[in-house]
Amino acid sequence: MLKEKLLALGAAVGVGALSLSVAATPASAASWKPEKPVTIVVPWGAGGSTDQIVRLVAVELEKELGQKFVIVNQPGAQGAIGTRSVMEAPRDGYTWASGAAKDIGTYGVSGLADTKLTDWHLFLAVVNTSVLSVNADTPYQTAEELVNAMKAKPGTVTVATAGVNSSGGAAVAALSNALGVEVKQVTYDGGNPATIATAGGETVATTQLAADQAEMIRARKIRPLAVLGGRTLTLDGVGEIPPITRFYPDYPVADDYFGLFIPRGVPQEVVDTVAHIWSKTIDGSEALQRYGAQKGSIPAVVMGEEAYAAAMPSIQKMAYGMVERGQAKADPATLGIPKP
Fold this sequence. Notes:
Elements: H1 2-13, E1 38-42, H2 49-65, E2 69-73, H3 80-88, E3 95-100, H4 101-104, H5 107-110, E4 120-128, E5 131-135, H6 143-152, E6 158-161, H7 167-179, E7 184-187, H8 191-199, E8 205-206, H9 210-218, E9 222-227, E10 233-235, E11 239-241, E12 256-263, H10 268-282, H11 286-295, E13 298-303, H12 304-324
Parallel strand pairs: 1-2, 1-3, 6-7, 6-8
Antiparallel strand pairs: 3-12, 4-12, 4-13, 5-8, 5-9, 10-11
């Protein structure tokens, strides 16, 4: 049922006509045997949510391909520096990108990188969700109390994120638009530094991903108030964190998919082989399931047309949010992003 819905969405937004046949790659086509280590660029600092999931998936890939995967952290420019380094690398299949699909799908809108979603083969692994949390020493016990404080003193409540184009930054924008609040966003080079900043009292709150915050939540350094989405989140050792829609039913939500991105133009055997491994090993991976329970991520393994369709709602939400806020450098429609 999920596949049919995603393919229907893909047709609606114009991705179904793309030549993205990797979703049904036969085992015989999975013939690539890398002759040297493969580099995966994480466009954020070490320890953050992207870094965590990439390292987990890399272990699975190493087992299948018998070759080393080298993880390179290249933070900066809200993830665009690392992404651009992959764009500029030889298209030989040995340099891949990673991160949130909505980020790589909107760099062209923000002007941070000259790329669009269809420049990449998407291999998505998890849905990550942002959490509205506060420093444990603040008085705020509920999302409503914090939102009321934001409304009472516009532009003074500090919120740590990994940048305006990051998941945390997008969550701040959505919060501001949906609830009519104004905050002071403080940016850091990654979700982990942003979370640490809140835990240390540099900022009042953070809207980074659950995977970034999980350890600090368990350590009682930060207090989770609400998931900035429509799903209740259950964290090992913490329990349930309610969705923001419980307090604000009309709050707009869209799933935030993370994974690996292989640039178009690489040999087809590379794409076919990774697709085979994705469906054979990554889908149903016990390590991925354990990670989800510990970090608050939802395993959601998709690729090809399904990945484009699954990622599009969050890309649309972020792209047209930039337009509304006057931050867009390009019309999303010219980059293949239809208005929702």
